[in-house]
Specification:
alpha/beta, single chain, Methane Monooxygenase Hydroxylase, Chain G, domain 1, binds flavin-adenine dinucleotide, about 525 residues, 13 helices, 16 strands, 7-stranded mixed beta sheet, binds succinic acid
């Protein structure tokens, strides 16, 4: 089965939906998304979206905070561009119907998070992402030029490889002609031909056992583009959020927003000591990589399963009003955050690296853009500043839409692309073979490629992953397409990229920390 569309958008978080709404004025848009239109990492974002909105803040301060959090590894030109364009993109979101909390004098109620020297985070209570996702979804569902394909899973992007050409890594002339997409309900594989394809598939948190990411975050975009010989970079910089609720039986881990620390909550170890000052003069509000490592270290020293986040000294009405989502969630689990400390642990949260793109979101593959968490723009460097992800997605979707729309009229469909080949594939007899490999990947990555790494652990992880890779590839080749097998294959690819890039980084920097390779520069304290 074949479909043709001007813009093929894969993913329906803030990045994909924002792009779709802009591009729909210039051609037919198809959004392919593997779950419902509403399901994404975006929906779970809590703290908010960073932008300079009022004095005493200014662009230079936001730029410097981003550069410092990124541990000297950001692309400064990109940082300057994103920070300057951020307020305009926030206005676009407001025009699309997103409401950000205000104070009684009608000014925005700006919050603060780790690494920010000013109050600059716009938010909607502590469920900002849900407010953004809802507003965008409503607009997209009403747009006559946008066709929505829910429960459709992008398997592979189409290039000259599908015309029988052999493509080399980093080959400059690769074109993207669309994607093979599995309809998860029917089930069948559709050949989607497009003039331009947009990868907006978000993160990969599920490569680890403990993550704040929902189950859709399996690194599909990075894996697809890597297999198509696109350039992937900085995958070793996996950001662990310092504070997810310690609740070993629940997946994903519930996030305890960093905005709580911006509001005055403090981290304590099991002895009740505010340990963060021993690690960094910024205390509980140091950048994320530093706080996550400090917590990991405290847990290891004392042999504890978690540390505490204490907000019991804060005004209880204020807490309930600002953080209703966290308050309610914890209360359901028997923790009244106004009276009791919250048990917290770090959890895999965000991929700073991804598909390498230019300042318009264009990848090294022609006609292929990558926007949002899946992209590596240079903004985050080795460690993302809190609340800089949603804004990056908004800025880059806008820039990618301008770039893609300007060229759409010159482009044509590649009709010679063949249909999906089902030959030799049958139904998988034992799903356990796939689910077990899924769990094993997560175990390998958590045990050997987590917050603290070493040469030995990385070597061991690579060897273990190789075995699972071979098994899964064999299974994939002889099985009819299923979501689970595609996801485990993608997670293996992503795990491989993280390990390989971590092995090649002979320095501890930002969120990549190795006991065998100390820090060379001194831009952060721990
Ligand atoms: P997503 O929102 O993750 O959307 C990806 C989409 O792609 C989904 O619709 C998914 O179903 C689809 N998809 C994936 N693979 C496929 C496939 N193979 N085929 C078809 N569809 C596919 N950032 C901030 O700036 N501020 C915050 O306060 C904040 N809080 C956060 C809290 C939590 C709990 C989490 C998990 C993240 C938070 N982040 C925050 C990070 C931020 O939410 C994400 O980085 C951002 O939302 C990513 O947006 P996106 O559009 O790139 O991807
Ligand atoms: C949070 O609310 O702590 C998450 C913010 C982010 O990931 O940027």
């Amino acid at each position: 089965m074949r479909k043709r569309t001007d813009f093929l958008v894969i993913g329906s978080g803030i990045a994909g939906l924002t792009f779709a709404l802009e591009a729909s004025h210039h051609g037919k848009v198809s959004i392919v998304t593997k779950s419902s239109l509403e399901e994404s990492n975006t929906k779970y974002a809590q703290g908010g979206i960073a932008a300079v909105f009022s004095e005493p803040d200014n662009f230079e301060k936001h730029i410097q905070d981003t550069l410092i959090a990124g541990d000297g590894f950001c692309d400064e030109e990109v940082v300057r561009m994103v920070v300057r364009e951020a307020p305009e993109r926030i206005k676009d979101l407001i025009n699309l119907g997103v409401s950000f909390d205000k104070r009684s004098d009608d000014s925005y109620d700006l919050a603060r998070e780790g690494g920010h020297t000013e109050y600059r985070i716009l938010h909607h209570k502590d469920n900002t992402g849900e407010a953004i996702q809802k507003a965008l979804t409503e607009k997209v569902r009403k747009d006559p030029n946008i066709e929505i394909f829910e429960n459709h899973f992008a398997i592979e992007i189409l290039t000259q490889h599908h015309l029988g050409e052999e493509l080399k890594k980093n080959y400059p002339g690769i074109n993207c002609y669309g994607a093979y997409v599995a309809d998860l309900i029917s089930p069948k594989v559709i050949t989607f031909l497009s003039k331009v394809t947009i990868i907006a598939t978000g993160g990969m948190g599920n490569v680890y056992q403990t993550t704040t990411n929902p189950e859709i975050a399996t690194g599909d975009g990075v894996a697809m583009v890597y297999r198509a010989k696109g350039i992937i970079e900085n995958m070793e910089f996996v950001q662990f959020h310092p504070t997810s609720l310690y609740d070993p039986n629940t997946r994903p881990s519930f996030l305890i927003t960093e905005a709580l620390r911006g509001y005055g909550a403090v981290l304590k170890n099991m002895s009740g000591e505010q340990f963060m000052k021993r690690y960094d003069s910024r205390g509980s509000l140091a950048p994320r990589d530093i706080v996550a490592r400090a917590i990991d270290n405290e847990m290891k020293i004392w042999g504890d399963d978690h540390v505490w986040l204490d907000c019991t000294h804060l005004n209880s009405d204020g807490l309930k009003d600002h953080f209703p989502n966290v308050y309610e969630h914890c209360l359901k689990r028997g923790i009244d955050i106004t009276k009791q400390m919250i048990p917290v642990v770090p959890a895999a949260h965000y991929s700073c690296g991804g598909i390498k793109v230019d300042m318009d979101g264009q990848s090294n593959i022609n006609r292929l853009y990558a926007i949002g968490e899946v992209a590596s723009t240079g903004l985050h460097g080795a460690n993302r500043l809190a609340s800089n992800s949603l804004i990056e997605a908004a800025v880059y979707s806008h820039r990618a839409a301008i770039s893609a729309c300007a060229r759409i009229k010159e482009l044509t469909f590649e009709e010679k692309i063949p249909e999906w080949n089902y030959k030799g594939t049958t139904h998988l007899e034992e799903m356990i073979l796939v689910t077990q490999n899924y769990k094993e990947v997560q175990m390998i990555m958590s045990n050997y490629v987590g917050i603290v790494r070493s040469d030995l652990r990385l070597e061991r992880a690579l060897k273990r992953l190789e075995i699972i890779y071979q098994e899964t590839e064999n299974l994939y080749k002889r099985s009819l397409i299923s979501k689970k097998i595609c996801e485990v294959r993608n997670l293996i690819n992503v795990g491989y990229l993280i390990i390989k890039m971590a092995k090649n980084r002979h320095e501890s920097i930002g969120s990549h920390y190795s006991i065998d390779h100390p820090k060379k520069r001194s831009s952060s304290e721990f």
